[in-house]
Amino acid sequence: MALRPIDNALPTTPERPKKQPKVALATQKQQDRAGVNGENIVPLPSSGDATVDYVSSDNLKPLSDPEVKIQSLVEDLDSKNWTKVCESLNDVRRFAMYHSSLLFPILGKIVLVVAKTMRNPRSALCKTAIMAAADIFNAFGDKLHDPEISDAFDGLLLQLLLKASQDKRFVCEEADRALGLMVGSMAPLPLLQKMRVYGSHKNLRVRAKAAVSLSRCVSKMGLQEMEQFGLVELIEVAADLLNDRLPEARDAARSVATSMYEALTKDSEEKMELWQSFCQSKLPPIHALSILKIVKP
Question: Is the pTM of this model over 0.85?
Answer without folding.
Answer: no
